[in-house]
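Weekly puzzle thread! Below is a chain. First person to post its structure in token form gets bragging rights.
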Amino acid sequence: MIGLIDYNMGNLRSVYNAFEKLGIAIEIVDKAEDVSRFSKIILPGVGAFKDAMSCLHERGMDDAIKGFVSSGKPLLGICLGMQLLFESSVEFGKCKGLGLIEGEIIKFDTTLFDRKLKIPHMGWNRLHVSQNTPLFKGMAEDFYLYFVHSFHARCDEKYTVGKTHYGYEFPSAVQKENVFGFQPHPEKSHTNGLKILQNFVEL
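Winning reply:
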């Protein structure tokens, strides 16, 4: 069974609906003590990093998620959920994250943009596969996904499995062992996104 973490900061319905389209059972979990009974979990997220970490901590979900990952079972973070996987973010002041992947979340540096681009980065953009990962099984080397974000990850290349260009190149998909993260929204990305979610189920 796959657990969808509810901490009052997630786009639960769209993720839940995507799995319904795939014909795969998924259960919303809002109690920290229930996290360990799932075989895989998904950490969604929409909003501010600091608020999200506060909500996770208040529910005891931060420690539950870390315990789940240490057991070797797969975790998928989506959008803000991916950002929370890192050590810290500078959004509204520096704030600690879950620390499951080394790196930080930073704001788009518009001084490096080669043309006038809007922030947030919103809409369809291309993800380029930079390293093999099971979540890209059966997919092309480049494909489009749907993005909505103003901050992005900065991390070692060894954790970057997918990159996207918006003003400059940034990590849009990451992996460290059994921890996976996507900055775009697979659940809103039609065929390509559903394929990624299907591959996660099949891990």
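Puzzle host: Confirmed. Bonus trivia for everyone else. The longest helix spans residues 190-201.
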